[in-house]
Amino acid sequence: MVEVVPPLERECLRCDRRDTWSEEAATWVAVEDDGERLTGRPHCLHDWDINGSFNPIAE
Fold first, then answer.
1. Helices in 1-59 by DSSP H: which ranges?
2. CA angle at residue 24 from 19 to 29, to 5 degrees?
3. N or C: which end of the chain has fewer CB within 10 A?
4. Distances from the Cα of 49 to the Cαs of 1, 8, 11, 14, in angstroms?
5. Rounded to a whole number, what is the distance in angstroms from the first to the last CA of the chain?
6. Is 59 within the bounds of a domain?
């Protein structure tokens, strides 16, 4: 049986927003660094770093 593993982190290549997946909230949440949320630019059309190099198949 094949197990599909979704990404747990992502970063926008345009504005440096960083998110992690929250199981509790069942959604992406902005990462906090030294008490500051890394939300990037509010009007950015995010270009996430999850691309063809990400392999969702667990080995």
1. none
2. 15
3. N
4. 28, 12, 6, 10
5. 11
6. no
Range of the domain at 32: 9-49
φ, ψ of residue 37 in degrees (nearest 5):
-75, 130
- List residues bridging with 37 in a β-sheet: 32
Q: Of all helices (H) and strands (E), which one includes residue 19?
A: strand 18-22
- Plot region of 36 (φ>0 → left; ψ -120 to 50 → alpha; else → beta): beta
Of 33, 34, 39, give the one whose Cα is nearest residue 11: 39
pTM: 0.75
The model's pLDDT over 3-19, given as tens digits with 9 standing for 90+, comes to 887 888 999 999 999 99
> What is the radius of gyration, based on Cα positions, of the chain?
13
Asked if residue 25 is part of any domain, the answer here is: yes
Tell me the two tokens of residue 31: 């990462």
